[in-house]
Sequence to fold (408 residues):
Amino acid sequence: MNALLLVRVTFRTLSRRLLRSLLACLGIIIGVASLIATVALFNSGISHGKKRLSLRGERQVIITATPRGSTQVTVRNRELRSQDRLTVDDYIAIRNIGGPWVAATVMLQSVNNIRANGREISVALRGTDIDGLSFDNATPRRIVAGSMFDAVSVEAGSGVCVFTQGVAEELFPAGDCVGRYAVVNGVPLLIVGVASSKSFIGEPSKGDFEVYLPYSSLIRRINPTAYIRIFVEAPETAAIPPLRAHLLGIMETRRGNRNAEFLVSDPAEYRLRDSEAASIARRVLISVMCISLLVGGIGVMNIMLANVAERTREIGIRLAIGTRSSDILFEFLLEATVLCVLGGFIGIAFGIGTAALVAYRFGWDLELSFGVVLLGFISSVSVGLVFGFAPARAAARLLPLEALRYEA
Fold:
């Protein structure tokens, strides 16, 4: 049987059993669509997250104190040696000495209960200066009501603060917090503004309970031992290595060149670590989705075995009149492959459409990888060849007389 005739017979046979053919390739459709949609949305989410990172975040170096032998960033001051502890004076020294940087701020952190409007919640107090909102997050906050406290308030240690939207909504459901007072550890704080919430995939984060106030006010009035971090922004990523060396030099010099231990972050290390983690997660996703393709292949094999059983007498007649076993083998193998390829094409269309719809819903740019689409297509062909071979071989090995006597 020539190849063209074999293809015509195959398509005619599948068209006669159209519903069964579609059900047979349903598993392949779901597997390929899941593979393409999942990986495309994963890539889109990663790309969207990177775009949301500000350039400041890419160039940001953070100084944190660490106890000897520890790599933990968040520790209590009492766990540190005296020469390892950061102080506000360190931040002032960095600002006064200058160096290869364009901006700097300090961030003190303390967890306290805050009372206002007859309500009380636990919040993270952030003691900072007038630039603190733009340094504290990869996506900087902005003032949405009122204003940020000014440099005079920072210098004087005034009792003023800025709520995040989560705190404002929790304590003042009516939305009239600006100009009102809140109390922390018996210290009254005038609410001068409300800052935007952190966001995740475009939606405000739940439980974003943070309050910003002048660092001088936090350390003098509320918590003298608040944990301190110093943020420094490099003019460009290439300037980060000399900036780190410069900052460490300042810290050592201020401590009489004693062996003080500080963790000075390098954004490049975080980017590399995130990239490696994303690559591992992507490979795991592809592996899991390929398992669903194997399940689809088992479905195709079951349908093809049913086809062989149903057409046993037909196969016997064809063998009796001289059709070669190899032609029978190739015909059934081609049927299985065509089913899987058809499922692959439909799955690719569904996968791309689903990914595009979800990406549009979240406001992402669709990151569609040609390699994943090609992998989906090659996988569908491979599944057809692998799982279609057993039914095709079973059909080709039928004996004419036994096939002719077969009763369904």
Remarks:
- The CA atoms of residues 119 and 171 lie 6 Å apart.
- The radius of gyration is 33 Å.
- Confidence is low (pLDDT under 50) at residues 68-78.
